[in-house]
Design a protein that fits this description.
The protein has 314 residues and is an alpha+beta fold. The protein has helices at 3-24, 29-41, 49-60, 65-68, 75-87, 102-107, 124-136, 139-143, 187-197, 201-207, 242-256, 265-281; strands at 92-93, 96-100, 120-123, 154-167, 170-185, 211-222, 228-230, 234-237, 285-295, 298-307.
C-alpha cells in the first residue's frame, strides 16, 4: 500500500472508530478494544484502545504553552539580538528595521561587517528570536533547498534552550544539548493533505488541529570545520512522549516531504538542527557558553559568535 492510500485509510478508520464509539457507547468497549482497533489500526502500531486514546489525546489536546515552555523569550529579547547584529553591520529590512534582512545576509553580497564587534554574545532567548525571524523570512526555500518543503508551512520558534556540556567543572564550548520547540500552523498542511488524498478539505479541517507543537532535543558537537554533528536526541508532538508521537510524525512527514527524500522522524529531528545551524552560519562561527551576564543577578546559557561570516566585504 502506498503512502497516499495508507494515510487516507488512517483518517477513514479514525472516523469509523468515532462513529462506532458513539453508536455502541461504553458497552461495546471490549469489542472495540480487542477486535476493532487491531483490525483498523494494527498496521500503524496501535493495538488497543489505550494506544488509540493516547494518539487521539496527542492530536486533539491543544497544550498550554505555559505548561511546557520553560524558557520563553520576549519581543525585547528579539530586539536586543537584532540591535547587536544591526550595530555590527548586518542589514535589516528597508520596510522594517526591527527585522534582519536574511536574503542579503544569506547572499553574502555587499555586507560590510564590523570585525571589532566580535565576539558577540547571544542568550538562548535572544537566539530564539533570531531563529523565529529566520523561519519567517523565506530563506529556507531560497537558500536552503534541502529544507524547502518546510518553507511551505507557517512555523514559529517558541523556545530554544542551550545546555553546554560541562565536565569536571570545565566548559566544553563545542558540545551542548539543544532543545527547540517549533509551532506549526497546519493550514497549508491540511490543504496539501486534502489535495494529496483527493478528499474534501472540510474533512481534514475536522480531524487535524489548527496548530501542532514539535519539540526536538538534540545532542550537538561542533567539529574542527565548524560543522554540527548530531548524536541521539528525541522529537515529539504536543509535548507527548516520542512513542505517542511517532505515528503522527510519520503521517505529517508523508504529506510534507516527497517519497524520494526517505524522510523519517530521526532525519526530521536532524533537519530542525540544520535550521538553527544554517541560520547561525550566516552570522558567523559559534561556540556554546554558560556564562552570559544578563544583569547583576542573572547568568544565562547561549552562544558566542566568535568571527564574521564568509564571504564578507573586507
Amino acid at each position: 500500500m502506498n503512502k497516499k492510500h495508507k494515510a487516507l485509510r488512517f483518517f477513514i478508520n479514525l472516523g469509523i472508530i468515532v462513529v462506532i464509539i458513539f453508536t455502541v457507547g461504553f458497552s461495546g468497549y471490549f469489542a472495540i478494544d480487542k477486535f476493532v482497533v487491531p483490525k483498523y489500526f494494527g498496521s500503524y502500531g496501535i493495538s488497543n484502545m489505550n494506544d488509540l486514546v493516547a494518539i487521539v489525546k496527542t492530536l486533539y489536546t491543544q497544550p498550554d504553552e505555559k505548561t511546557f515552555i520553560t524558557n520563553p523569550y520576549t519581543r525585547k529579547n528579539t530586539m536586543d539580538a537584532v540591535s547587536k547584529l544591526k550595530n555590527s553591520g548586518f542589514p535589516v529590512l528597508a520596510t522594517d528595521d526591527t527585522k534582519l534582512d536574511y536574503a542579503k545576509i544569506a547572499s553574502g553580497k555587499d555586507l560590510t561587517i564590523d570585525k571589532t564587534k566580535f565576539p558577540m554574545e547571544f542568550t538562548d532567548k535572544e537566539l530564539a528570536g533570531i531563529v523565529d525571524q529566520m523561519l519567517s523570512s523565506g530563506i529556507l526555500s531560497s537558500s536552503l533547498p534541502d529544507l524547502a518543503y518546510l518553507d511551505t508551512i507557517n512555523m514559529q520558534c517558541r523556545e530554544v534552550i542551550i545546555s553546554p556540556l560541562v565536565e569536571n567543572g570545565v566548559l566544553n564550548k563545542n558540545e551542548c544539548s539543544l532543545s527547540l520547540v517549533i509551532k506549526l500552523d497546519t493550514d497549508s498542511v491540511r490543504t496539501q493533505m486534502a489535495s494529496y488524498m483527493d478528499v474534501p478539505i472540510f474533512l481534514l479541517n475536522m480531524i487535524v488541529p489548527e496548530t501542532i507543537y514539535i519539540s526536538s532535543l538534540l545532542n550537538i558537537s561542533i567539529d574542527s570545520n565548524g560543522d554540527w554533528k548530531y548524536t541521539g536526541g528525541k522529537i515529539s508532538i504536543n509535548n507527548r512522549t516520542s512513542t505517542q508521537s511517532e505515528i503522527l510524525l510519520n503521517l505529517l512527514i508523508s504529506f510534507i516531504f516527497p517519497p524520494e527524500d526517505n524522510m523519517d522522524s530521526y532525519k526530521l529531528l536532524n533537519t530542525f538542527g540544520n535550521i538553527i545551524e544554517s541560520g547561525l552560519k550566516y552570522i558567523g562561527n559559534i561556540e556554546f557558553t554558560n556564562n552570559i551576564k544578563v544583569d547583576e543577578n542573572t547568568i544565562s546559557n547561549g552562544v558566542i559568535i566568535t568571527s564574521v561570516p564568509k564571504p564578507i566585504v573586507p
